[in-house]
UniProtKB/TrEMBL annotation:
Its main location: cytoplasm. Catalyzes the stereoinversion of LL-2,6-diaminopimelate (L,L-DAP) to meso-diaminopimelate (meso-DAP), a precursor of L-lysine and an essential component of the bacterial peptidoglycan. It is found in: Cytoplasm. It comes from the Bacteria. Pathway: Amino-acid biosynthesis; L-lysine biosynthesis via DAP pathway; DL-2,6-diaminopimelate from LL-2,6-diaminopimelate: step 1/1. Belongs to the diaminopimelate epimerase family. It is an enzyme of class 5 (isomerase). This is Diaminopimelate epimerase.
Amino acid sequence: MAIEFTKYHGLGNDFILIDNRSASEPRLTPDDAVKWCDRHFGIGADGVIFALPGQDGTDYTMRIFNNDGSEPEMCGNGIRCLAKFIAELEEITEPRSYKIHTLGGLITPKLEANGLITVDMGKPRLLAAEIPTTLVAANQKVVNQPLEVAGKTWQVTCVNMGNPHCITFVDDVAAIPLETVGPQFETHAVFPKKINTEFIQVVRSDYLKMRVWERGAGITLACGTGACASLVAGVLNGKCDRRATVELPGGLLQIEWSEADDRLYMTGPAEKTFVGQR
Ligand SMILES: N[C@H](CCC[C@H](N)C(=O)O)C(=O)O
């Protein structure tokens, strides 16, 4: 039987969204996700996102499969797309928040009157055991630590935003050979659950430029959890303010790491591109 889907993107980080409210398990398997995400033989996407019934008092549950079939804990651009998708399913037009259960914890996106979505992304986790990584002792933070990748020593900072991130500050993000170094970071032995890798150029203390190699998806045009992790890394290294614009190849995100509650807040768009069935 054909399955309906809606295609969304958050700054070019694109997803196939599936209405999964009638079942507690995703309607597609990880292998299906690989086929559906193929940009030549399938629909084409960075991942598949399922709107499942809520649990533990939440409105909904989000599960996501990367386009390699792996299942990450969280997705920042994806949860903005999910919020808009749900509002469409519920025929809601006025601003409202949703409590979403994810494998990375409770995440709360809020539809704003201006069409943007502000997401409470929760608190960063900074200890090596929480990333996870074996780069330093389990109870230590990973800030500005040397890591050998592709024959070069990089100074890295690691942050978990539900999913794991490794951030490196560089003078010119455009000069980074992402296709070469990305996979070698992703599968490095010090990251037992693999890693998302962000390269950051500090333009001003309130403006960062970012490129990303995503775990399970490769080069994407934007990464919401990565933008949050990168701002945290910038603050930890004394390179940026707690509120900054992050410029990604797909567009801009506004990120704040609240001093008051230690939580990250991300504001950005989500756009519907088409509907279909397969
Ligand atoms: N590939 C990521 C999940 C998607 C994250 C990204 N698209 C975002 O917007 O946060 C991972 O395996 O952790």
